[in-house]
Amino acid sequence: MQNVLNNLFGKRKDKEFVALIQAALEDQTIRQNLLTLLALPQSQRLSQLQKWEIELEEEHAPQPLISAIGFLKDADIASRTLYILNNHDI
C-alpha cells in the first residue's frame, strides 16, 4: 500500500503524510475524522484545517503531524485522499 500511496502523492514525497493516510486506512476513528473534513467545501476545509493546526500547536503535537495535515490544504491532494479513504476497505 505504501507504494500506491507514494505513487498517488508523488508530487510531494512526505513520509509523514503517507503515514497519516496509512493510519486512517487502519483506524476507523482517524478515517472518519478525515472523511468528514475532506467532504467539506474547500473554504470550510481550509478553515477547519487552520483550526486543527492551531490546536495541535497549542497541544505541542509533533511537527511532522502538523505538516502532514497541512498537505490536505491542497485541493488535488484532498481529492485523491478522499477517493482513497472512500474506496479502500478496512
List the helices and strands and how they pair.
Blueprint: H1 2-8, H2 15-26, H3 28-38, H4 42-58, H5 63-70, H6 75-87
Give structural notes.
With 90 residues, this protein is an all-alpha fold. It has one domain. The chain contains 6 helices and no strands. Helix 2 (15-26) packs across helix 5 (63-70). It is globular. The model has no long low-confidence stretch (mean pLDDT 86).
Specify Rg, calculated over alpha carbons.
12 Å
Distance between termini? 12 Å
- What overall form do the CA principal axes indicate? globular
Q: Largest sheet, described in full?
A: none
What is the N-to-C succession of helices and strands?
A: HHHHHH
- Residues in helices, as a percent range: over 70%
In terms of per-residue confidence, which ranges show pLDDT below 50 for 5 or more consecutive residues?
none
Overall average residue pLDDT: 86
Tell me the domain tally.
Answer: 1
Strand runs, count: 0
Give the class from helix and strand content and strand pairing: mainly alpha
As a percent range, the share of strand residues is under 5%
Please tally the helical runs, counting DSSP H or I stretches of 4 or more residues: 6
